[in-house]
Design a protein that fits this description.
The complex is a heterodimer. By secondary structure, chain A is an all-beta fold. In chain A, about 0% of the residues lie in helices and about 55% in strands. In chain A, strands 2, 4, 5, 9, 10 and 11 form a six-stranded mixed β-sheet that branches. In chain A, strands 1-3-8-7-6 form a five-stranded antiparallel β-sheet, with no helix packed on it. By secondary structure, chain B is mostly beta strands. Chain B is about 0% helix and about 50% strand. In chain B, the strands form two sheets. In chain B, strands 2, 4, 5, 6, 9, 10 and 11 form a seven-stranded mixed β-sheet that branches. In chain B, strands 1-3-8-7 form a four-stranded antiparallel β-sheet, with no helix packed on it. Classes of the chains: A mainly beta, B mainly beta. At the A-B interface, strand 4, strand 5 and strand 9 of A face strand 5 and strand 10 of B.
Chain lengths: ~110, ~110
């Protein structure tokens, strides 16, 4: 059974810092992995989707990497801004499976 | 604007009173699904639909029903709500189930 873990549960950093959010998964037979952001009281917004054959994906200040063999993904945020404050969720889709398995998320606070 | 909409956004009801949460997408997506989000448990899938008239159970289907009569709509029905169904509910859709998932804004349900 796939399990997805995100550590730490919460992170607070000063504005302008580069930071890394971690996601680990127990079953390496994944099809793809998706990073989302969730703002309080709002839905999930897809940030990046990375296929199992890819090593990384980039969108603006965000870069997601994937190491399938070690069961890890990281989301790198460059030059953080207060508007980046949100909960970041990692979700994995296994090979042959239709559903996403979510981690519990990392609540990120960027302090001005 | 491409979006997934849910109604109502907030609902307080009493045990046993049937309710429907609507979900609609305007992107011609084939795949739709429902999740519930609870503290400490994360996001769990309730039901999903691969296409019109094709639905199947997710991880926590007990107490819920769905239908997919039209491609754009995927309502979630609680025939006899109970307090343990108090939760934050999300609808999601994508072209195919392997693609980027787009989430609705969420429905916060309280069952007294």
């Amino acid at each position: 059974k796939q399990e997805v873990t995100q550590i730490p549960a919460a992170l607070s950093v000063p504005e302008g810092e580069n930071l890394v959010l971690n996601c680990s998964f127990t079953d390496s037979a994944i099809y793809n992995l998706q990073w989302f952001r969730q703002d309080p009281g709002k839905g999930l917004t897809s940030l990046l989707l990375i296929q199992s054959s890819q090593r990384e994906q980039t969108s603006g200040r965000l870069n997601a990497s994937l190491d399938k063999s070690s069961g890890r993904s990281t989301l790198y945020i460059a030059a953080s801004q207060p508007g980046d404050s949100a909960t970041y969720l990692c979700a994995v889709r296994n090979q042959g499976a239709q559903k996403l398995v979510f981690g519990q998320g990392t609540r990120l606070t960027i302090n001005p | 604007e491409a979006q997934v909409t849910q109604n109502p956004r907030y609902l307080i009801t009493v045990t046993g009173k049937k309710l429907t949460v609507t979900c609609s997408q305007n992107m011609n997506h084939e795949y739709m699904s429902w999740y519930r989000q609870d503290p400490g448990l994360g996001l769990r899938q309730i039901y999903y639909s691969m296409n019109v008239e094709v639905t199947d159970k997710g991880d926590v289907p007990e107490g819920y029903k769905v239908s997919r009569k039209e491609k754009r709509n995927f309502p979630l029905i609680l025939e006899s709500p109970s307090p343990n169904q108090t939760s934050l509910y999300f609808c999601a859709s994508s072209w195919k189930y392997t693609d980027t998932q787009y989430f609705g804004p969420g429905t916060r349900l309280t069952v007294l």
